[in-house]
Amino acid sequence: MPGAAATGPARVVARDWGWRHAGRKAWAVRDLDLVIEPGERVLLLGASGAGKSTLIHALAGVLGGADEGESHGSLLVDGVPPERARGRIGLVLQDPDSQVILSKVGDDVAFGCENLGVEREEIWRRVDASLEAVGLDLPLDHSTSALSGGQKQRLALAGVLAMHPSLLLLDEPTANLDPAGVAEVRDAVARLVDDGSSTLVVIEHRVDVWRELMTRVVVLDADGGVLADGPPDLVLDDVGQRLADAGVWVPGIPLGLAPRPVSGPSAAVITTDDLAIGRTRKQPVQERLGLAVPEGAATVIVGPNGAGKSTLALTLAGLLPEITGTVTAAPQLAGRLGSRPIRWKSTELLTRIGTVFQDPEHQFVSSTVRNELGVGLQALRWSRTAIDERVSEILEALGLGRLAEANPFSLSGGQKRRLSVATVLAARPAVMVLDEPTFGQDRRTWLSLVRLLQHELERGATIVSVTHDAGVVEHLGDHRILLEPLELGRRAA
Amino acid sequence: MTSLTAADRSTVLHHRPPLDRVNPVTKVLAVLILSVPLLLTIDWVSASTAVLLEVMLFPLSGLRFTALLKRALPVLVFAPIGGISMLLYAKPGGTEYLSLGFVRVTDNSIELAVAVTIRVLALGLPTILLFARVDPTDLADGLSQITKLPSRFVLGILAGARMLGLFIDDWRSLALARRARGLGDRGVVRRFASMAFVLLVFAIRRGSKLATAMEARGFGAPNERTWARPSRLGRADLVAVLVTIVIMAFALSTAVLAGTFRVVGQ
Q1: B90 shares its domain with B181
Q2: Which terminus, N or C, of chain A has the lesser number of Cβ atoms within 10 Å?
Q3: Is A409's Cβ below 8 Å from some Cβ in B?
Q4: Is residue A33 less than 8 Å (CB to CB) from chain B?
């Protein structure tokens, strides 16, 4: 097996390295000269589009062959191309769901060792040790689909760790996790690299999570090469503001948002009475909810994973039926078919309660951004000219004009999020319900989104957001609804 | 997906039933032994004998009777449907009892109807009995280690199949999102097509992410792969194969002795 004899932390050397994805004009990474010494812990930063992910995939040897793109210069891990050292390099990616490979915890951790040809007894020894190292205290036959996001990421980490990697690569491992999950994963990584047995490279735009653990920060320049390189404190002092402007969450740099004006109590626009909610009738996740959403204000729904926050949002928005009890819209909001949103027609919802889903792609239905914005207005039977006018106005206001003819699925994460909000704004709903609107957003897209929503509030809209994000609570949380998970006993009864 | 596994768990008895000691690969062979002869013959005695013997062996499977009924429900519903079409439209022969346009109920069609109904049961039942409690991972281990199917292929399917649960969640969200976008009132066909398209996009993207994750864990490396879970054949497998052969032989010879034995096409 190539490179199997070598042990200990790996050394990475890039010489004038570059990569261009097949079919693209621009190089994703170029002119990169970088040496990472064995045992270093490097936080890799840069604006979105600076090629961080491309570099980390290249280091893992999973960029693909010549039909996937074209490379330049050399990139070596302990003197060999990464594809030939794969077993010694561990990669953990952003999306927890697409990294679980097998259905039982033990089998999933063993998978990498099997591929490397490790002996059976040794595999199970390593599985036990790795699960302990990442703090996953679960039976080996525990189902992997029953894990939380943070647990799935720690499982992926354990699978990588069992391979005894010399180089550990983490590509935004905590971007899709709630605060508890972020801490779980960060602490597990801290324990792993403590003994200095592997070199660590992390991409993450939330710097404060990783800062303490890192020995070095490398900032990639979107125009090629390295923008800054050195000890974390020095680099962040030096180019912190530039990084913040490019979207990196640099600690200590203020957001520059005005605090929300203190408003008096306002009448409720949606109320619930003795409400029980659930995705299916058999499994209520909350019961006896008596809530009120104040009109013209910003409400946040907060609470730990599994408390039913998204389910509540979708029920308030007239998308999921109540299990028992009722959701009632105030008279000014009520439709022809009464005051319960779930009874309204789909087109009636459009102008009354608009919903932004957690994954923007779930709500895209057209092949261009322009058509996407017009879909709801067409359903409302607006005239062609009125639609064109409104769509142009929205494109302009949200800075999506340049992308009017692009396919929604081809946009970046931040653009997709803005488009999903824009499609809802187009029909001017009185109430907007947003499920985790800032998930995975960098600082720049986060700011543009929160400003946009604050602007809607000023125009008199009501906003309800489900969130884990302290920034959203601060800037869009005039009113707070805290959900605690139902006790298991009660839920079963 | 989670609720499915929970339901499965409730059907598990506490002691280990004999059928669990049989390797999943052997079960594939057993299903072939129990079904191929029945596909080639068409008479009611052989199929009924096979069904009867299989039901008698049901306690060995470790399934609860209610669980068996639940799983067998589709087969129980569809078997008579196949039978009724035979009853009404099969090649006429013997005494005629009813004639209405294309519909002709005769001795021949009645016999065929009964035979087909029982045959569908006889084909469905062993599959349910043998595979109700098979863990897909164990089957993949067996197919790779015992039948030596390429592991790239078998493990690829195994890992991919796990994603089905995610697609069910996606589908629900897609449906809710279409209602939220004002498209929920009409155009069912178009809506379905657009949801199917998005799901396809998700499938391709998830698939390639999964492939990356698997490659990053050394999948497809040129060296010899080892197996954390050995898949072995033992006495139980020999017994299982012998028992299924006996069942089939008994069923076919009963039909021959009863004089009803009939091969397809005759």
Answers
A1: no
A2: C
A3: yes
A4: no
